[in-house]
Specification:
Keywords: Membrane, Oxidoreductase, Signal, Transmembrane, Transmembrane helix. By secondary structure, the chain is mainly beta. The chain contains seven helices and 42 strands. It is globular.
Length: 674
C-alpha cells in the first residue's frame, strides 16, 4: 500500500509544473520539494560548477556598508530566467544556463539608512495577470519589497517598472507613525500573491520601545496597486504595544483563497507588563481570506511571549497521511524546535497539543501565562534545556569554566524560564531552533526536513535607573525598551574563546516521520572553517538560519556558515557531496531544469550577523557534461580543512627549507672558523 501511495503522489506531482521554482518556497505552500530526478543520491557526488554570477556589490559598495549585509536570497526560475534580489534590493535576471545577466533593476535605496535588520532581501514574488493579452507589458510581474519600505512591480521579461501599478510601478508604505530612524521599519521577505492580490509584511527594529510601530500586514490589487485591506495581528484592547508583525515568509492556498501569516511577538520582546493577557494574535499562525483580509482562524504557539519566540518560518502547506486518512494541513516549526501540525480549514491541531505549566515569578510588573502549548505527537527537533552536563568547549572533552560559572549564576529552569535581572538562560536561543529558512516536506516519502541551531542566549533585564548610560560589553545586544521599567541585554552563552557554551553540534539537519511521530536522523551541518582562526575546520556544525531543498532524486541540499553547498541522502542523512562556494551560502538552495540539465543554485554572499566572510555571488551546480570532470587536486583542496592543510604543508616546507639553510650557513661558518 505504501508503494502504491508513493506512486499516486508521484503521478499527482506530474501534473504540476515540474521544471520551475516559481515561488520563494518552491511552491505557494513552501514545501521546498522538487520532483526533478536527474540528480540522484547515486550521481550527486559528481556535480560540477555550472556558472557563477557576481552582483558587483563587493566592488561597488563601501566596505563599511557591505559589513551590514546578509545575502539570504532564494532565486526564482520563471520566464526562462533565474531572478533574484540583492541585499540592496536590486532585482537581477540571469540566463539559467550560463549565468549571464539579462536585465537589472536598481531601486537606488539609500546606503545611509542603517536598517535595523541590516541590508537584506530574501526573495521576490512572481505573478501572471490572466486578464492581460499575451505579450502585453507586465502580464508577467515580479513583486519586490525594499529596505526603505517600497513595494515595486516589474515586468518579469524586461525588468521595467509596471507603469499601471501604484505610482509608476511602486507604492511607498507608511509605518503609520514617526520612526526613530529611517531603518527602524523595512521589508525583508518576499511578498506573496493570490487571486489578484499581493500581500506584504514588514520587519521592525526590536527592543527599542513599548510604543513601537504596529505590525500591520498590507494587501494591494496586483494590477493597479490600489489598497485592498490591512490586518493588524495584535488585538489592542487594554494593550499598550506595537509589532506582532510578519517579517517571515508567508504562504498562500490559492484554491481556498487563504493567506497564512506567521506572526511575531509584541513590543518589547522581553517584558510584557503593559500588554496583559495572551496577546492575540501575536506568535500565531493566522489564516486570512486573501481577497478581503477577513480572519478565517488563528492558532497561537506562545502565550504572552517574553522570550522573542516569534514565528520566523514560513507555514508549510501540504497533504499528509495522518494514519487515519489524508489531510490538508499547515505545518509550523518554531524557534523552540516544536512542530505544530494544524488542519488547514479550521486551524485545529491534527494531533494533541497540551497546555503545560511553565516557570513563573517573572520580573516586577510582569503577568506571565501559567501554561504554554506543547505538541505531543511530533517530538521537539532539539533539546530544550541546557544543563551543566551539556557544557563543552570547542574541543571534545574540554570544558569551560566561564560557561559553568554562567550557568551557576543565571536563572535556568528550562523552556520558558522568564527573563530576569540576574540573567536568564534562554535555550534554544532567540535565533535557535528553526529560523527563516523554514521546513521542507517530501510528499512522496512523507518526511519533514528542517535545519536547526543549538545555542543559548543569556537575557538580562536592566532596571531603568541603571540603563541610562549603560555601556554593553562586546558581543552584547542592548535594547532600551523605552516605556518599560527595564532595558535588556542579550548575549550568546559562550566559552572563553567565543564558541557556544553547549557541546557541538551547533547546527543540524533533522528528518522527521510525521505520521509515526519519530525523528529519523540528525546530520551535523557545517564546520568552523570560515569562523575559526587560520581556517581550522572542526566538524562542529554551524548555526543554521537557512533551510533546505529536497528532490525526488533522494537528495537534501543545504548551505551553512562555511563555504560549501552540501548534499545529504534523504533516507539516511549520510553526506553525499559538498561543493565549494566563494563565501558561505547562508541562503536556501533551489533547483530547476533547463535544456535537459538539472541545476542546483544557492546565493553565496555570507552573513554579517553570523560573522562570516562577505561576498556577492550566486552559484549553480550541475552534472558534468561529456569531457568534464573534477580534478583530483580540487577534490582534495575544495573540502573542509583542505586549504588549511595546504597552508600548513607550505609552512612546513618553508620552515624545513629555512632550517636547512640555517644549518648550512652555520656549518660553513664552523668550517671557516676551523
Amino acid at each position: 500500500m505504501r508503494s502504491l501511495f508513493r506512486l499516486l503522489v508521484a503521478l499527482a506531482l506530474c501534473v504540476q509544473p515540474a521544471l520551475a521554482w516559481e515561488y520563494w518556497g518552491g511552491d505557494r505552500g513552501g514545501q521546498r520539494f522538487s520532483p526533478l530526478t536527474q540528480i540522484t543520491s547515486d550521481n550527486v557526488g559528481t556535480l560540477v560548477r555550472g556558472w557563477q554570477f557576481r552582483t558587483g556589490d563587493l566592488d561597488a559598495r563601501p566596505p563599511e556598508v557591505m559589513k551590514r549585509t546578509k545575502f539570504e536570497v532564494t532565486p526564482l526560475f520563471v520566464e526562462d530566467s533565474v531572478i533574484f534580489c540583492t541585499p540592496f534590493n536590486e532585482v537581477i535576471a540571469i540566463d539559467p544556463g550560463t549565468g549571464a545577466q539579462k536585465w537589472r533593476f536598481d531601486p537606488k535605496i539609500s546606503m545611509a539608512q542603517r536598517p535595523a535588520n541590516r541590508f537584506v532581501c530574501r526573495g521576490v514574488a512572481h505573478w501572471t495577470d490572466d486578464r492581460a493579452a499575451d505579450g502585453a507589458a507586465c502580464k508577467s510581474r515580479i513583486f519586490t519589497g525594499t529596505n526603505d519600505t517600497r513595494l515595486i512591480a516589474l515586468d518579469a521579461r524586461t525588468g521595467k517598472p509596471c507603469a499601471d501599478f501604484g505610482n509608476n510601478g511602486e507604492i511607498k508604505i507608511d509605518a503609520g507613525m514617526k520612526l526613530e530612524w529611517p531603518g527602524e521599519f523595512q521589508i525583508t521577505s518576499a511578498p506573496v500573491t493570490g487571486r489578484g492580490v499581493v500581500v506584504v509584511g514588514s520587519a521592525i527594529g526590536d527592543n527599542r520601545r513599548v510604543d513601537a510601530p504596529v505590525g500591520v500586514v498590507r494587501a494591494f490589487d496586483a494590477r493597479t496597486g490600489q489598497p485592498r485591506w490591512i490586518f493588524d495581528p495584535l488585538v489592542h484592547d487594554s494593550v499598550e504595544a506595537g509589532h506582532s508583525n510578519v517579517w517571515a515568509p508567508m504562504s498562500v492556498d490559492e484554491e481556498r483563497g487563504l493567506v497564512f501569516l506567521p506572526t511575531t511577538s509584541p513590543s518589547p520582546d522581553f517584558w510584557g507588563g503593559k500588554r496583559p493577557g495572551n496577546d492575540e494574535h501575536a506568535n500565531s499562525v493566522v489564516a486570512l481570506r486573501i481577497e478581503s483580509g477577513e480572519l478565517a482562524w488563528a492558532f497561537q504557539t506562545v502565550h504572552h511571549d517574553v522570550w522573542d519566540y516569534d514565528l520566523p518560518a514560513q507555514p508549510t502547506l501540504t497533504r499528509i497521511d495522518t494514519g487515519s486518512g489524508m489531510r490538508d494541513v499547515v505545518i509550523q516549526p518554531t524557534k523552540q524546535g516544536f512542530v505544530f501540525v494544524l488542519d488547514r480549514d479550521t486551524g485545529k491541531p491534527v494531533w494533541p497539543v497540551e497546555e503545560r505549566a511553565v516557570p513563573q515569578n517573572g520580573a516586577e510588573g510582569e503577568k506571565l501565562s501559567p501554561t504554554q502549548p506543547f505538541p505531543t505527537h511530533v517530538p521537539p527537533l532539539l533539546t530544550q534545556r541546557m544543563t551543566a552536563d551539556d557544557v563543552g568547549g570547542l574541543l571534545p572533552g574540554v570544558g569551560s569554566v566561564a560557561c559553568e560559572k554562567l550557568l551557576a549564576q543565571s536563572r535556568n529552569e528550562g523552556l520558558y524560564t522568564p527573563p530576569s535581572t540576574q540573567g536568564t538562560i534562554v535555550y534554544p536561543m532567540t535565533g535557535g531552533g528553526v529560523n527563516w529558512g523554514s521546513a521542507a516536506f517530501d510528499p512522496v516519502n512523507q518526511i519533514l526536513f528542517a535545519n536547526v541551531s543549538h545555542a543559548a542566549h543569556v537575557i538580562t533585564l536592566i532596571p531603568r535607573d541603571q540603563a541610562k548610560g549603560f555601556n554593553p560589553p562586546p558581543g552584547h545586544d542592548f535594547g532600551q525598551q523605552q516605556g518599560a521599567p527595564f532595558a535588556m541585554s542579550r548575549a550568546l552563552a559562550s566559552t572563553e574563546v567565543g564558541s557556544p557554551c553547549n557541546k557541538p553540534p551547533w547546527g543540524e539537519t533533522v528528518a522527521v516521520d510525521l505520521k509515526a511521530g519519530k525523528i529519523l536522523w540528525h546530520a551535523t551541518v557545517g564546520t568552523s572553517e570560515d569562523l575559526a582562526p587560520l581556517g581550522i575546520a572542526l566538524n562542529t556544525g554551524t548555526p543554521l538560519l537557512s533551510g533546505v531543498a529536497i528532490t525526488a532524486g533522494g537528495v537534501v541540499f543545504t548551505g551553512a556558515m562555511d563555504a560549501y553547498l552540501r548534499a545529504f541522502d534523504v533516507k539516511s542523512g549520510r553526506q553525499l557531496w559538498l561543493g565549494r562556494l566563494p563565501v558561505p551560502g547562508v541562503a536556501n538552495p533551489m533547483t530547476y531544469l533547463w535544456k535537459g540539465e538539472q541545476y542546483v543554485v544557492i546565493g553565496a554572499g555570507g552573513h554579517s550577523e553570523g560573522g562570516t566572510s562577505i561576498g556577492d555571488s550566486v552559484v549553480a551546480f550541475r552534472l558534468p557534461r561529456q569531457g568534464e570532470a573534477v580534478s583530483l587536486l580540487t577534490r582534495l583542496i575544495d573540502r573542509p580543512g583542505g586549504r588549511f592543510a595546504v597552508k600548513a604543508l607550505a609552512a612546513g616546507v618553508a620552515l624545513t627549507v629555512l632550517v636547512a639553510l640555517l644549518w648550512r650557513w652555520r656549518r660553513r661558518r664552523r668550517v671557516k672558523a676551523a
